[in-house]
Structure formats: structure tokens, C-alpha cells
Amino acid sequence: EPRQRKGIVGTSTNESMHSGVIEGMLLEIEGRMRAMSEQFSPFICVLTGGDAKYFDSQLKNSTFAHPNLTLRGIHTALRYNEE
After folding, report:
1. Which of 35, 55, 71, 80 is the most buried (most CB within 10 A)?
2. Cα 40 to the chain's mean position, in Å?
3. 64 forms bridges with which residues in the sheet?
4. How far apart are the first and last CA of the chain?
């Protein structure tokens, strides 16, 4: 289940640090996606990792999110090289 955005300002030191990291990452991803889409068209963003679904649900642009894509790729390469 994707995490819900709590806001850009926390009510404690811990919440403030957490929201600063998350909001900073979202802004960085959005900025990078904007720059890449200006240079490359069509552009598809692929998010991977455990929090991919959270970030995907927070981004306005269309993305493809797969939490285990990297691990599946490594597993596929391992199986290929075993043969």
C-alpha cells in the first residue's frame, strides 16, 4: 500500500526531517523527469525499489513502477549465466 503524503512541514524534528527528505526526492525526480522529457521524446520513466509505488503515486507524470525490477534483472542474468 502506497504511503500517504503528510505535508511539506512536520510537527516534530523527526517529521520535519522525514518530510524534507521525501519532498526533496520528489522534487528531484520531477525535475529530472522534466529535463529528460524535454530532450528525449517519447520519454518513459521507470521507478524501481521498495518505495517505487509510493513515489509513482505522488508524481504527476506518467511512470512505470516495479519494486523488484532490479532484483528480477539480476536473477535473470544469473539464470542465463548458469546455463
Report:
1. 55
2. 19
3. 46
4. 37
